[in-house]
Design goal:
The chain is α/β, with parallel strands linked by helices and 428 residues long. 33% of the residues lie in helices and 21% in strands. It has helices spanning 18-32, 43-56, 72-80, 90-97, 115-123, 134-143, 172-185, 204-222, 246-260, 275-278, 298-303, 330-333, 413-426; strands at residues 2-3, 7-11, 38-42, 60-65, 84-87, 106-108, 128-131, 148-152, 188-193, 229-231, 268-271, 282-293, 316-320, 342-343, 352-358, 367-375, 382-385, 406-411. The strands form two sheets. Strands 1, 2, 3, 12, 13, 14, 15, 16, 17 and 18 form a ten-stranded mixed β-sheet that branches. α2 crosses α13 (413-426) and α8 (204-222) runs parallel beside α9 (246-260).
Length: 428
């Protein structure tokens, strides 16, 4: 079906799994000779993650990090569910506004803003924004005097896979000066934000950051600011096999909230989950467009540039039509991502061979993996890469002229019904 003219969505049949649907899709494409890589977005997974979030963190309202995956199906689904949106630029604000999302459901969570983007936010009444420097305060006073600002503080994110406080966040010792300057400039500061780093591995990072935020709340109130909003940022896992689960984080977060910002304190709590919502929702299907058997020459073997083959061993090379310059670009810079390809057809009983798998571009850096143990794959076979929703297409390019994978959206009947009801309740 066509969803509001924005994207096509297939509702699965009762009892049909996303795996069933994907196998049928690859079989049909092979039958008619369609080899282009594609992504399957199971929007039901986004719905289920949303339900799980509210069960684990009932006081924390999610503002989805658009940078993680800005595909129309994801944004529309979260808009229907009533989520807010963390936007980093004018372009991202325009994307969510085009869905009818009101300005009060957007936080301009970019502590260092291009002036034209700040002016766009002011023009369109996006008031909630973050800052971490006096330059940002002065710019807001001149160009967005009605802004409601969150002071982003630095955190101890040393246990996270990606440390963000090396780039953003005011040291605690500078916060008093910033709050005083905001008062002098007539700029409204309504709360504090922080980010414990992407791929957080230590739940206590949230507890420590909330204790710091509490001290800044107290300081802000003493200086006359109305401190009513806490933004606990992102860092939430996209799957349960990356070291810590949402529920494990929630135990610590809920305890810290009750200690520092108890219910009834008048403080609203929001967060900026990205990969949490979309990682498991996307599967990439890439086609084998080339193959060859590795037969090292005597010269390369003597030079040690090729692995030594044991008697009877075969080593294969495969070339796919998506790679590190496309939707698998996340594998270059995202330590949270894992690669576990599997053929779309069953491989039980088939001989396995160590294999090297390449992307399609002319660059030898476009290497997906070495030593993968795979059955021998024929030209036209499909390899599936699961959990591809986070920082995949959002970081991709069209290097060498290769098109990006298209997105096919699916959803289970139960999740589709839930989504429709959520939309009807929000827009009676």
């Amino acid at each position: 079906m066509d969803v509001e003219g924005r994207f096509q969505l297939a509702v699965l049949q009762e009892g049909q799994s996303s795996q069933d649907w994907l196998e049928r899709e690859t079989e049909e494409r092979s039958r008619v000779g369609r080899q282009d890589a594609f992504l399957v977005a199971d929007l039901g997974e986004v719905v289920l993650q949303h339900q799980r979030w509210h069960a684990a963190l009932p006081r924390v309202r999610p503002f989805y990090a658009v940078k993680c995956n800005s595909s129309p199906g994801v944004l529309w689904t979260l808009a229907q569910l009533g989520a807010g949106f963390d936007c980093a630029s004018q372009g991202e604000m325009q994307l969510v506004m085009a869905l009818g999302v009101p300005a009060h459901r957007i936080v301009f969570a970019q502590p260092c803003k291009q002036l034209s983007h700040l002016q766009f936010a002011a023009k369109h009444d996006v008031q909630l924004a973050t800052f971490d420097s006096q330059e940002e305060l002065r710019q807001a006073a001149l160009h967005h005097p009605r802004a409601q600002l969150l002071l982003r503080i630095a955190t101890d994110d040393s246990t996270s896979m990606y440390r963000l406080s090396v780039k953003y966040g005011a040291p605690l010792g500078e916060c008093g000066h910033l709050l005083e300057l905001a008062r002098e400039l007539g700029v409204e500061v309504i709360g504090v934000s922080f980010h414990v780093g992407s791929g957080c591995q230590d739940p206590q990072a949230f507890s420590l950051a909330m204790a710091d935020a509490r001290s800044i709340f107290t300081l802000g109130q003493q200086l006359g600011h109305s401190m009513t909003l806490l933004d606990i940022g992102g860092g939430f896992p996209g799957t349960d096999h990356t070291g810590v689960t949402l529920e494990e984080l929630a135990v610590v977060i809920n305890t810290a909230l009750e200690l520092h910002f108890p219910a009834g304190s008048g403080v609203e709590v929001i967060s900026e989950p990205g990969r949490y919502y979309v990682t498991s929702a996307f599967t990439l299907a890439a086609n084998v467009i080339g193959k060859k058997e590795v037969s090292p020459s005597p010269e390369s073997a003597r030079a040690g540039s090729c692995p030594v083959l044991t008697p009877g061993e075969r080593r294969m090379m495969y070339y796919l039509n998506d790679g590190l310059y496309g939707s698998l670009s996340c594998l270059v810079h995202d330590l949270v991502q894992r690669v576990e390809p599997q053929p779309s057809a069953p491989w039980a009983g088939r001989a396995l061979h160590p294999s090297t798998v390449w992307g399609p571009t002319c660059d030898s850096l476009d290497l997906l993996g070495e030593g993968w143990v795979l059955p021998e794959l024929e030209l036209g076979a499909w390899l599936l890469f699961r959990d591809r929703g986070a920082y995949s297409l959002s970081c991709a390019s069209r290097f060498c002229g290769f098109d990006l994978p298209s997105i096919l959206h699916i959803i289970s009947p139960a999740c589709w019904e839930y989504l429709q009801k959520a939309g009807e309740e929000r827009n009676p």
